[in-house]
Here is the input.
Amino acid sequence: MAQRIPVRLNLPGLNTIMRSPEARAIVDSTGQRMAAAAGDGFEYVAAPHRWVARGYVQPANARAMREQARTAALERALGQIKGSGKS
Here is the structure.
């Protein structure tokens, strides 16, 4: 039988890492690449949270909203950046 090893997470320390400038830079870079891959009319919006770096990509105008509804441009862009192997 395997021996149980207790693990205790340091949540304040983990949160510090998750909102660090380095984590924010990775999230921002990925979001900007996704917005560019989605095409004209899509924008990246940084939305830092108390515990983590975060952001999102959204249509910035009506034409981009229609493009998203018709062709799922954001989902295709996500597939493109996931396959690129870059951080």
About this structure: The radius of gyration is 17 Å. Strands lie at 42-46, 55-59. DSSP finds four helices and two strands in the chain.
